[in-house]
Amino acid sequence: MLSAGLLLGSLSVCSADAGQRGIDIEIIPADGTGQSDVVNLYSSSYALVIGIDAYSDGWPKLKNAVADARAVADSLRRRGFGVDYYENTTSDSLRQIFRRFFIERGASPDSRLFVWFAGHGHTLEGEGFIIPSDGATPDDDTGFRRTALHLRDIGNFARLARSRHSFAIFDSCFAGTVFGATRAMPPPAIRRAVLNPVRQFLTSGSANQRVSDDGLFRRLFLEALDGKRRADANGDGYLTASELGLFMGDAVSNYTGNGQTPQFGPLRDPLYDKGDFVFLLDRQPIISSQSGQTDAVIWNSLRDSQRAEDFQLFIDTYPDSPFVPFAANRLSALTAEPAHSIDPVDADFYVIVDRANHRKLPMVGSERLGQSVRDEKVRVTGKVRDMPWFRVQRQDNSTAFIHASLLSPEKRSVPPVILSRVRQPGDLFSDCEACPEMLVTRSGRFMANNSDIPRLFDIPEPYAISAYEITRADWKACLDGGGCGGYRPEGSDANSDLVPVSHVSWDDAMAYVRWLSESNGVPYRLPSDAEWEYVATGFGLVKSETENQSVREVVRDELRIGLPAQTVDARAANSAGAYGMTDGVREWVADCQIGQETRRCVTHAVRGAATLENESGNATLPRVWIEPDARSPVIGFRVARDLSSVELGR
């Protein structure tokens, strides 16, 4: 455990056996028939509870965060949780507290971990942060990034836990980029799927909302645990995190007139989004429905609807249902005019970079009004303040919203680059002074390990790929040229500009590619998975073994290595003439996995490893699939481009 001397305030740790109380649950067959099973879901239960009132560096002091945390800690102790309790923690200790809790308390696969944090939160550039007692304000950009704890870091710590389930509640407001907000319906009873691993999150408010410091969120949470509120939607005596998320979202939104809209969802990781955290209720909810179970079944089937008339029909049909206030709240939200602040933009026309849906409101789940295709020009009339959405004018002069990642300012007129030299395999060249050095490959065939079954690939024509990973100097050139969205990755102020740039997402890499292409008139791109492997294996001549890894391996690299320190030319080039293919940083490539429901890319491939070549000299070529907005200190990228007919000697 951390020593008390590292903390501001007090530390209270459970007794040795306080966290040993488990839960037995009754598993009902999925078809509702047959014999049910009683299984031991948890053998131990642990909670981390943190409350911060005493802010000292520009953040307003709070009145009830510590009191709320104490009340939650007391309730959890009564429920058999071993509680690690902290007050007014500083930036030096907050990160270690989270890391130790998930690793040490989560050592057993049969444990459950619960987190409650009450204090300030903030959203910066679409990313969520929680603020320690000595945290700097965003006005001090460097100080803020140094002291605030990134929500993605907490997600990574949660991945390191071996426990089956973890559930983190933040009585704070920020953007939940590490988890996918959802309102999935609970099943009519506990199913076997609940046993799967899961990491779930709940925030008391969304980005840029003012969360009330009056104890409302804590009070509703504890009343739900005590069975005083109808949070157990299916009435089976178990309160799952999914049910709690639905209840808290509706209840808090209703009480605050949509001034606070809690966000709930699982970690964006296919390894940790299937199960459900479970509380055992002391008694059944006191609210009963005069219409039996029919209203509950109907409510569960329509509560995600985007049609206002569905909720009006529910209110008219079941006027005495306890769900009527929530239906009225949803009806009000769907019929209210959006109150989003719109900022002006520099360019009138933008270009669609991928197929883009037109949304009625600036949110993914909003009604779809239409669609634009790649390279189509659209008129942009403004940007939604503090949200990655643009307002556009449709052909019928109505307005809609398109996500910022799907738009790029209209390409400026750039004099074409004269590509007169014939490129030979192994040649190195740059298209401009600030452009990365490119390596010319050769045509050929090779056996690629880019699927479970090796596949023979033809490379009919040479292409160019950057000989080195994109460096901090390359990224700085993009910033100086007005590109890359102005984003400055962590570590960009390091001593050497020749270190690989990292802490960049797939979306960030594509922003660099767009800037490089537009500023030079040459169409750059990310290499495909097969193109990357072709070069990494010396044009297919070096024996390789590809291992599909989980995000957990990336997190281990982060903890073991941190930010890259070696320059891109620290080790010799491989037989193809490329540097850093099996060391340096992992690298984004173009390939993606398509979501079954969205039919769009949900994750992109990351190749290579943040390690050295193995002792046998064979290339080690891991692959991991990660969300396009994820950033890691051990992930960077390199670029590629096709060669023109002149460059190919035609």
Topology at a glance:
Blueprint: E1 11-12, E2 23-27, E3 37-42, E4 44-51, H1 65-78, E5 82-87, H2 91-105, E6 111-118, E7 121-124, E8 127-130, H3 141-147, E9 149-150, H4 151-160, E10 165-173, E11 198-205, H5 216-225, E12 238-240, H6 241-255, E13 263-266, E14 278-280, H7 294-302, H8 308-317, H9 324-335, E15 342-343, E16 349-352, E17 356-359, E18 368-372, E19 377-384, E20 389-393, E21 399-403, E22 407-409, E23 428-429, E24 438-440, E25 444-448, E26 455-459, E27 463-466, H10 472-480, H11 506-520, E28 524-525, H12 529-536, E29 544-545, H13 551-560, E30 586-594, E31 601-607, E32 619-620, E33 623-626, E34 635-637, E35 640-642
Parallel strand pairs: 4-5, 4-6, 6-10, 10-11, 29-32, 30-34
Antiparallel strand pairs: 1-5, 2-3, 7-8, 8-9, 11-13, 12-14, 15-19, 16-19, 16-22, 17-18, 19-20, 20-21, 23-24, 24-27, 25-26, 27-35, 28-35, 30-31, 31-33
Helix pairs in contact: 2-4, 4-13, 5-6, 6-9, 8-9
Distance between the termini: 69 Å
> Largest beta sheet: what is the strand line-up?
1-5-4-6-10-11-13
Please identify the top-level CATH class of the largest domain: Alpha Beta
Main β-sheet, in a few words?
7 strands, mixed
What does the model show?
This protein is of the alpha+beta class and 650 residues long. It has 4 domains: 10-280, Rossmann fold (3-Layer(aba) Sandwich), CATH 3.40.50; 294-335, no CATH class; 342-409, SH3 type barrels; 428-642, paralog of FGE (formylglycine-generating enzyme), CATH 3.90.1580.10. It contains 13 helices and 35 strands. Strands 1-5-4-6-10-11-13 form a 7-stranded mixed sheet, sandwiched between helices. Strands 15, 16, 19, 20, 21 and 22 form a 6-stranded antiparallel sheet that branches. Strands 23-24-27-35-28 form a 5-stranded antiparallel sheet. The longest helix has 15 residues, at 91-105.
